[in-house]
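Example record for the data management plan.
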Amino acid sequence: MTDGIDSKNKATVSPLMGEGLRGDGTAKWYVVHTYSGYENKVKTSIERMVEYRGMQDLILEVVIPTEERIEIKDGVKKVKTRKLYPGYVVIKMIVNNETWYLVRNTEGVTGFVGHGSDPIPLTKEEIVRMGVEKLHIDLDIEVGDTVRIIGGLFEGQLGIVESINPEKQVVKAKISMFGRDTPAELEFSQVSKL
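Corresponding structural encoding:
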C-alpha cells in the first residue's frame, strides 16, 4: 500500500496522513456507519480482526442494536428480530490510530459518526436509549420521598414516590398537575432526590 491506495485501487483512509492521536484513552461507545445490509458482516469482520491482532483490550464490544417483535400471521405467533438502526453498528472501544484505522478500513464501513475523521462518543443517555448497554443506577430514595424529574415528559416537575422497582429501574410517582394528582412511571435516570 502506498499513498493511501491499496492493491485493489480502492482509496483507504490512513491515520498516518495528517491524523493525530484520538480519544482520551478510555473505552467509550461509538457509532459506525455501514453500507445498508452490511451490519452483520462488519460486526463479524471487526471481531475477527480484533481476535487475530490481539486487540481485545482496545475494542471491547461490537453491537448491532436490535429488538424482538412478535408477529401473528394466520394464527401463528413468530418472534422476529429487527435492526433498530439499519446501516449502523455500535462499538465500545478505546480510540487510537490503530483501532480507528482497523474499524475505518473494514469492508462495508463508510465511517464513524462525528466530525470528519474525529469520532464522537455516545452520551450515557444515548447508550441507554439505543439499548446498547443497560446502566444500573443505584437511586437513594424511598417510598414517600419527593423527587425532581430531570428528564422526559415531566421534566422540571416534582413528584412523590409511590413505588420503586430496582430490577426494572423504574419509579412510580404522583405528580401534581392542574390541581390533580397524575401517576407517572419514570426511569431511574429521569429522577433525582431533593
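Summary line stored alongside the record: The longest strand covers residues 66-73.
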